[in-house]
Amino acid sequence: MASDIENRQPTPLRQHLARLYDGRDTAAIRFQFALMVIDLAIIGFFLAGPYIRDRPSYLILDYAIAAWIAIEMLAQWGASRTTRGFLLRPMTWIDLFVLGTLLFPHLLFNFAFLRVARIWAVAQRPVFKLMLNRLGLKEQTDVVTAFLNLFVFLFLVTGFVYTFFFYAEDAGSGFIDALYFTVATVTTTGFGDITLPGTFGKLTSIVTMIIGISLFVRLAQAIVRPYKVTFPCPECGLQRHDADAVHCKACGHVLNIPDEGM
Known about the structure:
Blueprint: H1 12-22, H2 26-52, H3 56-79, H4 83-87, H5 90-103, H6 117-123, H7 126-134, H8 141-166, H9 171-186, H10 198-224, E1 228-230, E2 240-242
Antiparallel strand pairs: 1-2
Transmembrane segments: 33-52, 58-75, 96-123, 143-168, 200-220
Subcellular location: Membrane
Main location: membrane
């Protein structure tokens, strides 16, 4: 059936938005970097929430951020080729959830920390590698990506633990306790001086250990192993090769690896 769920007719505004969100030119990179800075500012608001939630300015900032997220979601919908594709994106539902918590701050917990997932989403795009290339970090792409994955996970878990277990405590010590617990759990140090109570707390600890140690090991591997580029061999399909490889190590096929900096 013909509806907005199918491919919509491109308009100048939609094309411009699509270039900003998915493009690789200078304007698109600056735009996407600005979005990351705004997301970090929203996370800062989440951290400052316990300090200012009794002040009149709290609701003003809260609803201003809610308005920004709503406008950005409309822009992302406009940049999407189909409504279906927009609705299938995990970040769409994360933003909707965060928006709900901001619209009803006295009824729901503040889950603004979930916005850190946007950094992970940006790191999965090709433009992220282009940004690293321009910063002279081409050979550290795997290390930076692994570090961001671990950072995002640490902050997501810290925010989750802080919201559900330490939100009623002093803002500074509560967040530090949540971060301390998360790092100790991910590294399997397990000092035991800070633990999460009840069955829900134990399940949270289990999930944190299983996923966290995997990301921690992946970061260590990315640091010690030599730099390789991702380029599928036309003959055998081997994905990873040395940056200056001429032949595939698996089958000996001649490779023509393009220069990512070009």
